[in-house]
Write a structure and sequence with these properties.
Aspartate Aminotransferase, domain 2, three-stranded antiparallel beta sheet, Aspartate Aminotransferase, domain 1, globular, binds pyridoxal-5'-phosphate, L-aspartate:2-oxoglutarate aminotransferase activity, 13 helices, 2 domains, eight-stranded mixed beta sheet, single chain, 13 strands, alpha/beta
Length: 431
């Protein structure tokens, strides 16, 4: 695909030069539109090749294999906390003692939803009243962040207060100030490793600060969504400080709710999700879960334990994902650099894990870029999606998800995106 290579800084061009560049870019854009592409960069989901890595699961545990290590017949009811052998595998990966880890259904988002709904209906341990709609309950939302966290709060009428992310996690001073001064602030969403969408790895200082800070609310919770705990894109397996231990040491053992899942390890639709927390929190959640089910799908948990084997087995499996994902992320970086570096039209993250690249275009241009791309047959996540209520105050951030499309499609999609970013940028500068 021909991409007009504007490599000079757009902001340094004269008005005449910008006008000429605009004509050139419009010509290239018309050509792009003429190709009637149908490409998609919205989906943060594993490709078919990644799912194939876990195909063996479909034959497990196999007829005749249904007994767990402790003698539990996995085919039967019960075992609300999940199979011990699977909790033993994931305990160290999520930094939760296996005895405080629950292995539940197929989705960690479901467990976050459970926690929020029960907090809204009944409160959490330590609450003086439920976080009900109309109670004024609010949560801190590091931005840009994960849209589904925000959609959940919006549905429940829990107010969202954005807090900017920096290279070490959420702006700690701002979080400390907001949590200390307002008892309505009940919690914070955190994706501590390879954050969605910025790829940030929280520093130890941030983790300790969040665990130890003074909160006006006695029932403050950190929603520690460790969705990308083992999802490395480089050979460095980045570590994040142990939030449960830090909270325990600081005298706030009930503060963290830890979440994780195998959605992007085994099968995104048929994995196993985890919840880890203090004993009183685990009793609280399982008390509520026990009213809606007699137990989780332990056959699925058994086949996961058999397939993955150990924490090392999980790491080895994630190396196979990395071999498939890394070339796609490298391709995106190469295309963005070739097309945009030096233009001043965008900056972007270089994640070392996770599923996303976060792109900042010129202020006021993100919606225009998304609209131009859509018209050219390239679907992008809606501008604003990584912000509470879908509103990016600067109209600047675009989330890219390179995992799903085949490399050739990804390549065409990023070429087209680069062109749309330049076109929107020049239009903006001429306004
Ligand atoms: N949390 C984050 C940060 C995610 O990015 C995603 C999926 O993209 C999820 C949770 C969903 O997890 P699950 O499949 O376990 O519900």
């Amino acid at each position: 695909m021909p991409v007009t290579l504007v490599t000079v800084s757009l902001t340094e061009l004269s008005r005449d030069e910008l006008t000429r560049t605009l004509d050139e870019l419009r010509g290239a854009y018309d050509e792009l539109r003429g190709r009637a592409l149908a490409l998609d960069l919205t989906r943060g989901k594993p490709s078919a090749e990644q799912l194939d890595l876990a195909e063996e699961l479909l034959g497990l545990p196999g007829a005749g294999t249904h007994t767990a290590a402790d003698g539990t017949d996995t085919r039967n009811y019960g075992g609300l906390r999940g199979l011990a052998e699977l909790r033993e595998i994931f305990g160290p990966l999520l930094d939760v003692p296996a005895g405080q880890l629950v292995a539940f259904g197929n989705s960690s988002l479901e467990l976050m939803h459970e926690c929020m709904v029960h907090a809204a209906l009944f409160g959490v341990p330590g609450s003086t009243r439920p976080w009900a709609p109309g109670s004024g309950a609010a949560v801190l939302c590091p931005v840009p962040g994960y849209d589904r966290h925000f959609a959940l709060c919006e549905k429940l009428g829990i107010e969202m207060i954005p807090v900017p992310m920096n290279g070490e996690g959420p702006d700690l001073a701002e979080v400390e100030r907001l949590a200390a001064e307002d008892a309505r602030v009940k919690g914070i969403w955190c994706v501590p490793k390879y954050s969605n969408p910025t790829g940030t790895v929280y520093s130890a200082q941030t983790v300790r600060g969040l665990a130890a800070m003074r909160t006006a609310a006695p029932d403050f919770r950190i929603f520690w969504d460790n969705a990308y705990a083992v999802h490395h894109l480089t050979e460095t397996r980045h570590e994040v400080a142990d939030v449960l231990a830090a909270a325990d040491e600081a005298g706030n053992p009930d503060r963290p709710f830890v979440f994780g899942s195998t959605s992007k390890i085994t099968l995104a639709g048929s994995g196993v999700a985890f919840f880890g927390a203090s004993k009183s929190n685990v009793d609280w959640l399982t008390g509520h879960l026990g009213k809606r089910t007699i137990g989780p799908d332990k056959v699925n948990q058994l086949r996961h334990a058999l397939f993955l084997g150990s924490a090392d087995g999980v790491h080895a499996h994630m190396d196979r994902h990395r071999a498939l994902l890394r070339p796609k992320f490298d391709l995106v970086q190469r295309k963005l650099e070739e097309g945009l570096s030096g233009t001043g039209a965008a900056t972007w993250t270089v994640p070392e894990g996770g599923y996303f690249v976060s792109l900042d275009v010129l202020d006021g241009c993100a919606s225009r870029v998304v609209a131009l791309a859509a018209e050219a047959g390239i679907a992008l996540t809606p501008a604003g999606a990584p912000f509470p209520y879908g509103k990016d105050p600067n109209d600047r951030v675009i989330r890219l998800a390179p995992s799903y499309p085949p490399p050739a499609e990804l390549s065409d999609a990023v070429d087209g995106l680069v062109l749309c970013i330049k076109l929107a940028g020049v239009e903006h500068l001429l306004r």
